[in-house]
Amino acid sequence: MRKIGLIAGSGRFPLLLSKEIKNKGCELIVVAIKGAADGDVEKNSDSFHWVELGMMQDMIDIFKENEVNEIMMVGKVNKTILYTNSSFDNRVKGMLETLDEKNDDRLLASIAQEFHKEGINLIDPMEFLRPFFPKAGVLTSKKPDENVKADIDFGFTMAKRLSDMDIGQVVVVKNQIVLAVEAMEGTDKAIPRGAMLGKGDVIVAKVSRPKQDMRFDIPVVGLTTIDTLIKSKASALVIDQNTIILDMEEVIKKADDNNITIFVKSTGRKISRIFISTGELSGDLHASHVISKIRMVNPSVVIDGIGGKYMARHNVNLIENVSNLSEMGFVEVSKSIMKYKKLFERVRKYLLENRPEKVVLLDASGMNFRIGKIAKELGIEVIYYIPPKVWVWKGQGRIKKMKEICDKVICLFDFENEIFESNEMEVSYFGNPLVEIVKEEKKKEQFLMENPEIQDGDKVILLLPGSRNQEIKYLLHNILRSASNLHKKDPSLKFVMLKAQDVKLDIDTSELDFPLIVKEKDSYCWYRFATFGIVASGTATLEAAISNLPMVIVYRVNFLTYWIARVMLDINYVGLPNIIANEEVVPEFIQGDFKPEKIAEFIYDTITDENKYNVIKDKLEKVVMKIQNENILDNIAGKILE
User: What residue stretches are annotated with the LpxI C-terminal domain (predicted)?
Assistant: First the structure.
């Protein structure tokens, strides 16, 4: 069971959050601040402890004794105590002495760092708080007239400027004059001060800061806020969508009963920075198409990440190239542990220094689970686009890991959507983007003109040995032997090998006993033009299916990797077309069954039997129908920017 620690200050927020944490099935360990927290929060806890505000070491000891490594801080604490109270332990005193600036951000970041030193990470509570965020617009029955609306717009603008300077987040205005601004005393004291000057009918604006760190500083309004507005004879409250409303229904009713307008402004804030991590070339390709759509909506967004040539073409700042990371299999990856350890250190440093709003992960679970964990520890939203194939593994271990690191999942298959939903994860399915990506790059006439080795009417056998060097190592020899055997059966066949860029192909075509053409460009044109394919298991099998290219799927890895996979995996097929259809649409030749003679015989029998050939094409069409939809890439980009 996941363990969550909660440091509870005053107000109802800790109580409501504790209920949400328990509703998610987590074990809850509460450290309540003496003189601030409401003792009722104990009702929802599995372990409850009162601690003085300045006793950080006591808090650390409690969390470590309970084996807690994820904590949240919510509720009010009078920050003036931090600069006047002398009853601090040595840890807090030492921390305060090192502060070069004593503003909120610097102070709270230092507190987070002290916990992190002990392996305890302050996390973003957003996954538990979604029900508390309001929609934009007027929430109350009373609508603002033109004068009030002018004050709402003015007050909101002034509050945003104030928050930009990290002074406060609340202003009180009337007739487009600022009456009070929040300082260290807090919202509930700033409002009466402004109301006294305005003598009623004031407008109160409360906003989030530009880079609000939701791990420990969440803007909140609730019944206490409404009571303060009533006493101050305020006529309206304006907040932004990053502000939580506690007891929302009661707050709205009480505001209605007292003729107070509550107006929620759309944040209208564009995401400024995204980090995208993909582990190999097919993920790099997927990412590039989504990046293109993201930039159409938000041209100014800065995107950094781990990727390859396709992401680089879209002006992504790469901190690592996937061509250096293309290992596959248990044994192969284990040999690169030190390389990945250094990469994770660089990723942590980047995330700390740049703090992107979103981290988007694509497949590559061995690497991306760790990157997601780092991002989660730093309070950054994590979206898994193209999640790892958790459904192939026996047991629930991988789904559990995903729940720990992910805020959202965007999947590529409808059956994945059902799996993640059943595990209470926020998941979206819009269709498979390859349907929009796999298109003929050129017209047939131009394609033939640029490839004079091929004539219209030729039967072309397409060879795809994979996009990783490991795949080439285990597949290339038998793919070439399969082609050789097939050539002996029908010398008129043309053989074209599609080489992925950044992959080494150690082939001397002059030494082969059949003519081989090697190409790197126009892969989707070749899919459409070819008669049949020998395709390495992976994304290429679905690209071929979308192109309606009959194929055989081949798969072979290190013997030990294959043996481990047999023990740990629970899957009937390795090829995506077969997995989607849940039946053998095209044959698979795996490990010891990957025999050139068998492959050549099957292909020859199929391409010389029109009925057998067309049955495969018809089945592939049905596979594609299962993953089609409209505006797939637009919807994926929109979800990431949401």
Answer: 136-262
Q: Is 280 helix (H, G, I), strand (E, B) or coil?
A: coil
pLDDT tens digits along 516-528: 999 988 889 999 9
Residue 303 CA to residue 321 CA, distance in Å, equals: 15
What pTM, to 2 d.p., does this model score?
0.59
Contacts of 503 (CB under 8 A, 6+ apart): 326, 466, 467, 468, 469, 472
Which residue has tokens 């394609």?
447
- The structure tokens listed for 284 are 């790099």
Strand (E) or helix (H) holding 623: helix 610-625
Asked, colleague to colleague, whether 3-125 and 273-432+632-641 share their fold, the answer is: yes
Q: Work out whether strand 170-174 and strand 203-206 pair parallel, antiparallel, or are unpaired.
A: antiparallel
HEC sequence for 369-404: HHHHHHHHHCCCEEEEECCCCHHHECCCHHHHHHHH
Helix residue spans in 4-103 (DSSP H): 13-23, 56-65, 81-84, 90-97
Express each pLDDT in 324-339 by its tens digit.
Answer: 875 544 445 555 777 8
Q: Which amino acid is at 194?
A: G
What lies within 8 Å, CB to CB, of 45 at 6+ separation is: 6, 18, 28, 29, 30
pLDDT in tens, 400-439: 888 889 999 999 998 888 888 988 899 999 999 999 999 7
Mean pLDDT of the chain: 87
- Mark out the alpha helices in 406-468 (DSSP H runs): 414-422, 434-437, 444-450
Of the candidates 294, 254, 264, 259, which has an alpha carbon nearest to the alpha carbon of residue 276?
294
Map 535-579 to HEC letters.
EECCHHHHHHHHCCCCEEEEECCCHHHHHHHHHHECCCCCCHHHH
491 Cβ contact partners less than 8 Å away, ≥ 6 residues apart = none
Contact 128, 25 (CB under 8 A): no
CA atoms of 444 and 456, how far apart (whole Å): 9
Contact 501, 520 (CB under 8 A): yes
Question: How far, in Å, CA of 436 to CA of 458, rounded?
Answer: 28
CATH match of 273-432+632-641 with 3.40.50.2000: yes
Which of 1.10.630.10, 3.40.50.2000, 3.40.50.720, 3.40.710.10 would CATH assign to domain 444-625? 3.40.50.2000
Could you tell me if 172 and 279 are in contact, meaning their C-beta atoms sit under 8 angstroms apart?
no
Architecture of the domain spanning 133-265:
3-Layer(aba) Sandwich (3.40)
CA dist 582 and 566 (Å) reads 19
- Is it the case that residue 473 has pLDDT exceeding 60? yes
The span from the CA of 33 to the CA of 146, in Å, is: 45
Residues forming a β-bridge with 590: 555
Contacts of 319-325 with C-beta under 8 Å, sequence gap 24+, read 319/346, 319/347, 319/350, 320/346, 322/278, 322/279, 322/280, 322/281, 322/283, 322/284, 323/281, 323/502, 325/279, 325/280, 325/364, 325/367
The structural domains of the chain, with segments of one domain joined by +, span 3-125, 133-265, 273-432+632-641, 444-625
231-250 pLDDT, tens digit each:
999 999 999 888 889 889 99
Gyration radius from the chain CA atoms? 30
CATH architecture of 3-125: 3-Layer(aba) Sandwich (3.40)
d(CA 409, CA 361): 9
Q: Which residues contact 426 (CB under 8 A, 6 or more apart)?
A: 407, 408, 409
Length of the chain: 642
Paired sense of beta strands 551-555 and 532-536, if any: parallel
